[in-house]
Amino acid sequence: MNHKEQYHQWIQQFITRNSTVIDMTCGNGYDTLFLAPLSKKVVAIDIQITAIENTKVRTQNFDNIEYINNDHSQVDYTKYAPIEGALYNLGYLPGSDKSIITEASSTVESLKKLIPNIQSFLVISCYRGHPGGNEEYLAVKAYIESLNAKVIVLDYPTPLSPVTFCIDLT
């Protein structure tokens, strides 16, 4: 089972049909598509309009999704509270310009704004193999360690392979 399958299975213990959840980096829409039938509302965020458009196509059969084309550090999460949980897939949009990446500073800033509004879970997948990816991973890891929360770490033995943090905030 890959990381996505593992964290999808893990978050199902938290989500109900009354949940509001956030896909912090909706990319090509796979997590949004997973969340939509399980939740009352999904907020899909991405800084790239291409990602929002890809997600809209993939999730066109759902009417419970709000799409936000913005930097995740600039969103006011209080207007969606209480939020059951959120997911991040950091790095770059697969199949697009690899020079447009998430960055440590904006990701940590978004976490600081988001976490006070979350009730249950947070999943953060860090991709360390591209320029800036390992630095972002280290910043996210340090921030998560400061939370003193229950964390499951999914990783592979290969150097600079992806690492996913499953954080129980209950």
Automatic annotation (TrEMBL):
Record's keyword terms, sorted: Methyltransferase, Transferase
SUPFAM superfamilies reported in the protein's UniProt record: S-adenosyl-L-methionine-dependent methyltransferases
Record flagged with keyword Protease: no
Pfam families in alphabetical order: rRNA_methylase (PF06962)
GO biological process: methylation
GO terms, molecular function: methyltransferase activity
PANTHER family, sorted: S-ADENOSYL-L-METHIONINE-DEPENDENT METHYLTRANSFERASES SUPERFAMILY PROTEIN, TRNA (MNM(5)S(2)U34)-METHYLTRANSFERASE, CHLOROPLASTIC
Protein's recorded name: Methyltransferase domain-containing protein
Organism: Erysipelothrix inopinata
